[in-house]
């Protein structure tokens, strides 16, 4: 899958407080904290520390279908929750394909039911009834596959976190 450039960076950020955090487990790191009073710092009121925040986990996201991006409501640095819509591709083409294939599946289903009835009466060969059943199953499967394409026109956040960056905007063309 070609990376379209959407990066969701899930970062854990913690802060200092006067409360003792007793949480422990595989997701926590024990840190010892020393409180300094003013007499020990020569009257200094502010202490600065340099550091770098790195994402605990990054997830590269891209669409599974091609199309024009119609909506891209998030920007780099935005916080997103799991399941939140990140971007959307125009589904019109996929919806039209699905409707056409669904109509074909209904027609094939009706044809199969009619031929099955005629077969039970002994008026046609079994092979004709089997062909009709096969056509019905193929048409149904094709409609289901196209429906999946409609579902893939929406890109949702797989986890809560922050958008690390994006390389496309609404109006651009997404390719899988």
Structural commentary:
By secondary structure, the chain is of the alpha+beta class. The protein folds into two domains: 1-66 and 73-85 and 156-176, no CATH class; 91-152, Orthogonal Bundle (Helix Hairpins), CATH 1.10.287. Helix content is 31%, strand content 18%.
What is the CA-based Rg, rounded?
A: 29 Å
Helix and strand run:
EEEEEHHEEE
Oligomer: single chain
Morphology: elongated
Q: What layout of secondary structure does this protein have?
A:
Elements (H helix, E strand, L loop, with lengths): L5 E5 L46 E5 L5 E5 L7 E2 L4 E5 L2 H29 L5 H26 L2 E3 L4 E5 L7 E2 L2
Antiparallel strand pairs: 1-2, 1-7, 3-5, 3-8, 4-7, 5-6
Helix pairs in contact: 1-2
Label this structure with key terms.
single chain, 176 residues, Helix Hairpins, four-stranded antiparallel beta sheet, 8 strands, 31% helix, disordered N terminus, alpha+beta
Outline of this structure?
This protein has helices at residues 92-120, 126-151; strands spanning 6-10, 57-61, 67-71, 79-80, 85-89, 154-156, 161-165, 173-174.
């Amino acid at each position: 899958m070609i990376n379209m450039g959407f990066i969701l960076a899930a970062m854990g950020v913690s802060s200092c407080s006067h409360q003792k955090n007793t949480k422990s487990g595989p997701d926590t790191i024990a840190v010892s904290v020393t409180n300094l009073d003013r007499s020990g710092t020569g009257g200094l009121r502010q202490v600065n520390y340099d550091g770098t925040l790195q994402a605990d986990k990054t997830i590269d996201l891209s669409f599974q279908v091609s199309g024009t991006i119609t909506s891209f409501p998030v920007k780099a640095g935005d916080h997103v929750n799991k399941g939140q819509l990140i971007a959307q591709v125009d589904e019109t083409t996929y919806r039209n394909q699905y409707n056409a294939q669904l109509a074909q599946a209904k027609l094939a289903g009706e044809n199969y039911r009619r031929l099955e009835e005629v077969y039970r009466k002994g008026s046609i060969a079994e092979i004709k009834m089997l062909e009709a059943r096969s056509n019905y199953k193929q048409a149904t499967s094709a409609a289901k596959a196209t429906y999946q394409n409609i579902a893939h026109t929406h890109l949702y956040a797989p986890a809560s976190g922050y958008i690390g960056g994006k390389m496309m905007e609404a109006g651009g063309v997404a390719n899988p």
